[in-house]
Amino acid sequence: MVDVAIVGTGHSKFGNRTDVNLQELAWEAVKQALEESNLDQKDIDMFVVGNAGGWSSEPLSAIVIGEYCNLAPKGTMRVEAACATGSAALRIAYQAIKAGDAKIAMVIGVEQMHQSPNPVAIEMMGRAGNYFWEFENFGLTFPGYYALYATRRMAKFGMKEEDLGQIAIKNHYYGSFNPYAMFQKQIKMDEYMKSRVVAYPLKVYDACPITDGAAAVILASEEVAKKITDSPVWIVSQGFKSGTANLSKRDDFISIDAARLAAEEAYKKARIDFENSWRYFDVAEVHDCFTIAEIMAYEDLGFAKRGEGHLLAREGQTYIGGRIPVNVDGGLKAKGHPIGATGVSMAVSITRQLLYRAHKGTQVDVKNGMGIAHNVGGTGHYAYVTIFSLKKPSA
Amino acid sequence: MGVTEIRERQFNEIDKKALEQIDLLIKNSGMPIMRDLKTNNLLWIDVRELTQRFMIPIGRIYKFFDQLSKGKIIGTKCPKCGSIYFPPQDDCTKCKVSGLDVIELSGEGELLTYTIITVKPVSFMHYQDYIVGIARLKEGINILAWVNEKPEDVKVGMKVKVNVVKREPEGYFTYELRKIQ
């Protein structure tokens, strides 16, 4: 099978982007990716649009974006996997190239959540569990779903609210160096502790913001990649799994099972030992839609033992220089979480880290030449784990 | 109060103000365009509203609602493999058998976890802050529902019972979790 590399990346400023519409926002990332790879739209064989949709006005977002970005009549589709939409879009392009159906494919992740008023966005996200059995009568919100995990962990493992606060503080710290981040302000523990409760025990500072943003990557087959760049970043493997729609059907509320299974799948293909996984990577992007999600990600990826994820945070082991730097671009917490763009944004961040092109104050030491992205959709409804490397996987 | 009155009250609070604003914009400038308060960016305010109310088929699990209205909580059980389903379903998708047996659930179990929703979705704004919990019942299945207790009385691991109640102010049957004293 063909090896697949990232040969171009693009990233818009994340935030409250009322200055542009959906397609203009997508173009910011598309243009940057085309320029970076020195390619033209005519070189792209297909494009995939990751857009969870529902909050912005155009229902056929892939088509509106294709028209605006001059990508029509190339083949396309809109891909949805909730908050893992971007990684799902990446998967389609990756597999098309692997299968020999395309040589160059573009992945565009974009979301403009602010087209809907905040109360409507909160309503829509709450409905994204199992609508009939768990929303219609019981009105869970998205922070509410993750709060159920946090409460359980506090009771079972003695996790403290301050441990969650450590995640928020770290991600805001790195977000302050990222010009693309929605929040560029550092926070302190007392501000965290004082912030308003949204779904006990989670507070405003435990939650990622409602965000507008776009990211794009251009993928190419080995044959083409070698012609157009001397610094390809290869996709080594991707694991993807799903969980139950009903949250009540989950087992113990201390782990996102789908994410752990996706990690195991990706590690198996990449020949990575789960227990020592952190030794293989220079940097990780994990799905910190809420601080508790990042804690669980540490364990689901094998960076910490079960029940010890919050200790990794407490010890500051996920800062640059620690066991493994995590979300040093600010993560979803500070960079923002434009649903469909997030997975693609993670791929952009890891690629730029491996190529020593990260923003000042966020660059990690690249020793192993490998990075990992962990992208969860819903509250463990979908999970995608993708491994990136400077070294060709089949080499 | 009923669904109609609740809808009307919410409509008056939220939608009416927005519509009046659109009318004012059109009257003043001939177009539904306004400036974003924070950024001063220009925004077109959609004049076509979309409201959705879904029609969800429940015929195959109607027995659940029938029993609920009589104060009972049921699950379904596969006569072949013995799997118990809650929420109830009429197909055992493991052994591909349909028309499952009905079993009355004990309703007794232990609270696995909970949260208190303080920032509510629009369609839940007419309720006080509510506690959502997940309990594991004796039968080995989990149930998610509101925990009708004071927040300070709710603890992970406490014994709970499922209760059939009327959801007010709408007045329809649903279920909740209560602490077993």
TrEMBL record, chain A:
Instruction: Give the species.
Output: Saccharolobus caldissimus
Q: Which residues form the signal peptide?
A: none
User: Could you tell me which residue ranges the Thiolase N-terminal domain spans?
Assistant: 4-223
What GO annotations for molecular function exist for this entry? acyltransferase activity, transferring groups other than amino-acyl groups
Keyword list (alphabetical) reads: Isoprene biosynthesis
Domain Thiolase C-terminal per the UniProt entry, residue ranges: 243-389
Coiled-coil ranges per UniProt: none
- According to the record, the segments passing through the membrane are none
Protein name per UniProt = Acetyl-CoA acetyltransferase
Q: Biological process (GO) annotations?
A: isoprenoid biosynthetic process
- InterPro entries, A to Z: Thiolase (IPR002155), Thiolase-like (IPR016039), Thiolase_C_2 (IPR055140), Thiolase_N (IPR020616)
TrEMBL record, chain B:
Q: Which residues form the ChsH2 C-terminal OB-fold domain?
A: 104-164
Instruction: Please list the residue ranges annotated as the ChsH2 rubredoxin-like zinc ribbon domain.
Output: 66-100
Q: Which organism is it from?
A: Saccharolobus caldissimus
Record InterPro entries: ChsH2_C (IPR002878), ChsH2_Znr (IPR022002), NA-bd_OB-fold (IPR012340), Thioester_dehydratase-like (IPR052513)
In its UniProt entry, what is this protein called?
Answer: 3-hydroxybutyryl-CoA epimerase
Please give the SUPFAM superfamilies that the UniProt record associates with this protein: Nucleic acid-binding proteins
